Amino acid sequence: MGRLLLFLIGIAIGAAGMYMLVQRGLVAAPTPMPVQVVPAAGSEAPATRIEELRPPLPSTRAPLPLPLPAPPAPDGAQATDASAPPASTPNASEQSVATTPEAAAAITAATAAASDGQLLLPVQGVQPAQLLDTFTQSRGEGRLHDAIDIMAARGTPVVAVADGRVAKLFDSKQGGLTVYQFDRDEKLAYYYAHLDRYAAGLVEGKQLRRGDVLGYVGSTGNANPDGPHLHFAVFVLGPEKNWWKGTAVNPYPLLGGR
Question: Structure pTM?
């Protein structure tokens, strides 16, 4: 009896010592042996391990970062042709009328007018030698410029290149303040864009004479504020005489560019 009592006391002391060592982290806690649950006789249910009943431990893997939104496109990244008319109508440089003898004759007449000095350079103080031919430059989305840009200081007067009436004054998102002028025979249209402001008294239907001031160089619309210029285009009108639609003609040689 005395030996059994001493044996039990030894077991208790050993268990207490082990518990103290585990609490102090000196000894790892023993891993319990997996226990298999034996199904009852005649049952086909699979055995289940104790580990399968425990809730999963939280993952220590850092969560994947959420995708960041794409940075906004810089100003002008989506700019295309500044000569775009209202969104509900096609662009003169995109939508060309069918080639007709009348259109060919109008182009010939425009070239003849330029060679005779009848087309005036539309920005005061700029000489033909300063012009750059940007007519075929790309403006994104497979579109061409279909115009030339004439660089000048903000506020420089813009003048009518020939006689003819003001067909449309239009403020567009891309072209800013614009003027569409028809020639006297209403076969050609002259397009002036990015104006800083219109000349006093300019209204639709007004008859302009060659050299009349119609506005001033600026950077309205999608133009770079640091590079004021006149976006100038010429196009042959179709039979409908739509101010936004026609066949683009390169203004560079018409203005004396070489």
Answer: 0.61
